[in-house]
């Protein structure tokens, strides 16, 4: 056989066996009798078997017809299960969104994006997993999340990516720190020589800083303290622990209110792109596509 029997022909055969009449089976399927007769004839030709014996008293299945109808019944049940299952998966997909975001994005941007999405989709459940940029690709590749956001200098290999925002890192200190009294910008060499409050390795902020220092021909920063979130770094600097390199998004309000002071540094580029990432070869659909649309709208307003 060059082609498999179509499901509606199999369903017609099963119904002929159940009701004992071609016209009755056709009526249940909403088919005209001539059309139903053509379907059965085409099925018999395809299988090379006589399946239905037609008499004046009606139609009944032959021995071969009963065997084929039994197999067809199991096939149709499995197809119904397939359709029911895929509909359930589609409904679940449209009712929830699983997101992984790096710390800075999760703390500073994702709440606004998700809030705007849920204003139009109040029934939508959004699960936000907060991690560092290094872990987001693994969560996507394992299928644990539908969409990710990272702040690393490069888009992760093997994933599709789209820029959703711009950010830059700032050197910040508490108001009483000696660097606030400088008349000239801090040099990169002075920055590297100073013990800093830093994000942990694997974070996008740390990776951006490390890469910028390498491009400037210098080594790694000197850790005074390594912390797992921008909020923890911010609080440590406000408490006077020491200077830090941190996202401008995370400290904008503190700079405006005078709780922190930004120190200019020359000879280093600390701007970066924040990206949405998803499984390569797939087009985001459903809530994931809707959240991406929110990030685009917000990006245009920024």
TrEMBL record:
Protein name: LysR family transcriptional regulator
Protein family according to the UniProt entry: Belongs to the LysR transcriptional regulatory family.
Species: Streptomyces javensis
Alphabetized PANTHER family for the sequence: HTH-TYPE TRANSCRIPTIONAL REGULATOR, HTH-TYPE TRANSCRIPTIONAL REGULATOR CYSL
Location of the HTH lysR-type domain: 5-62
Source superkingdom: Bacteria
Keywords: DNA-binding, Transcription, Transcription regulation
Alphabetized InterPro entries for the sequence: LysR_HTH_N, LysR_subst-bd, WH-like_DNA-bd_sf, WH_DNA-bd_sf
Coiled-coil zones: none
């Amino acid at each position: 056989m060059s082609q498999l029997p179509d499901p509606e022909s199999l369903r017609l055969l099963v119904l002929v066996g159940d009701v004992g009449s071609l016209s009755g089976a056709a009526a249940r399927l909403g088919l005209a009798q001539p059309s139903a007769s053509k379907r059965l004839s085409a099925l018999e030709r395809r299988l090379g078997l006589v399946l239905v014996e037609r008499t004046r008293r009606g139609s009944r299945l032959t021995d071969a017809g009963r065997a084929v109808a039994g197999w067809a019944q199991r096939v149709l049940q499995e197809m119904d299960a397939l359709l029911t299952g895929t509909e359930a998966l589609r409904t679940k997909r449209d009712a929830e969104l699983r997101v992984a975001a790096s710390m800075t994005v999760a703390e500073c941007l994702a709440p606004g994006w998700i809030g705007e999405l849920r204003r139009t989709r109040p029934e939508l459940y959004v699960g936000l997993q907060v991690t560092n940029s290094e872990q987001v690709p693994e969560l996507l590749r394992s299928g644990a999340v539908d969409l990710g956001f990272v702040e690393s200098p490069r888009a992760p290999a093997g994933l599709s990516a789209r820029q959703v925002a711009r950010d830059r890192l700032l050197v910040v200190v508490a108001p009483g720190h000696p660097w606030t009294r400088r008349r000239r910008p801090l040099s990169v060499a002075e920055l590297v020589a100073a013990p800093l409050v830093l994000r942990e390795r694997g974070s996008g902020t740390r990776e951006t800083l490390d890469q910028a220092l390498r491009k400037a021909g210098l080594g790694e920063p000197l850790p005074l303290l390594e912390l797992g979130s921008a909020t923890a770094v911010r609080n440590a600097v406000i408490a006077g622990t020491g200077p830090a390199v941190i996202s401008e998004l995370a400290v904008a309000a503190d700079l405006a209110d005078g709780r922190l002071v930004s120190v200019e540094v020359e000879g280093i580029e600390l701007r970066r792109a924040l990206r949405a990432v998803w499984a390569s070869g797939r087009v985001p659909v459903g809530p994931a596509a809707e959240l991406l649309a929110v990030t685009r709208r917000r990006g245009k307003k920024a």
